[in-house]
Design brief:
Distance between the termini of chain A: 20 Å
Strand order of the largest sheet of chain A: 3-2-1-4-5
Structural class of chain A: alpha/beta
Radius of gyration of chain A: 15 Å
Oligomer: homodimer
Strand content of chain A: 15-25%
Largest interface: A-B, 28 and 28 residues
Number of helices of chain A: 5
Helix content of chain A: 40-55%
């Protein structure tokens, strides 16, 4: 089962595709989709749409887990983040992929056991949970992996694994 | 030339397709795309995506004019409006349709000559400019027509019309 984690953004949209369960969870692909700030917004949304479509085609994830936009944080960039999240969610749901949103607090709570964890703590827990020697960089990628790990932690393990 | 005006929203997305120029401008289609508030957001975005695609296919507008989301107005609904606007803009731009955003003030200024015009004043000017006996209802439709009229007012007339 592949889970595609998304840290949404218009200038930078982080993604991580995780596979496995529990201690065997591994990242099979990760990166950042960037669009040019000087380009018109509609063209940037199309570029993002095409890259997300490519990921959905290539990996056929069963779930897309995406961090919920919080408008209180930064009103100036919130519009672009909301627009980007809308495009990503529509593309995934249109292919039949389940889409689940998690708040930043839910992600931190699931990954670090503390809804007020710092970026550094989240990055370090993601590193440990994925068995990596170094933290995922840039932070967008690590944050995308964190939301995918959050979804995996919420999902019940298959019955066979519980025996 | 068809101009597709959009008053974006996730629960209610108004649209108006206008044709012609100046005193001959007419509405050829108009309506509201609604999605069910109790449905999951990703499914609602897909429903909106499909309806917008249908309009783009049927009318092949050369321009999509969309009202710019202002987050200051209502933070609670702004997220859905931003997501909906993102989906609409991406769909249009992906088909090669030009996409132009206008602020609410720009729309009121263009249609009423007053950036602080009331909803009622905008509705009445839209009615007059489109040669209708009654105002377009509901307000989402009238607002979508207003942003299309705003675009038409900004666009230079073809050279032949200026002779």
């Amino acid at each position: 089962m592949f889970v595609l984690g998304i840290d949404p953004g218009l200038s930078r949209c982080g993604y991580s595709i995780l596979s496995g369960r529990g201690a065997s969870t591994r990242a099979v692909a990760a990166g950042v989709i960037t669009t040019e700030p000087h380009e018109p917004v509609p063209q940037r949304l199309v570029a993002l749409q095409q890259e997300i479509r490519r990921l959905l085609d290539e990996f056929a994830p069963s779930v897309l887990a995406i961090e919920r936009v919080l408008f209180q944080i930064n009103v100036r960039t919130a519009m672009g983040v909301g627009q980007a999240a809308g495009v990503v969610m529509a593309e995934a749901a249109a292919t039949g992929c389940e889409v689940v949103e998690y708040s930043p607090n839910q992600v931190k709570q699931a990954v670090c056991g503390d809804g007020a964890a710092t970026k550094q703590q989240v990055g370090e827990m993601v590193r440990m949970l994925l068995g990596l020697s170094e933290q995922l960089r840039p932070a967008d990628v690590s944050d995308a992996a964190a939301v995918a790990l959050c979804h995996m932690a919420q999902s019940p393990a298959p019955a066979v694994a519980r025996r």
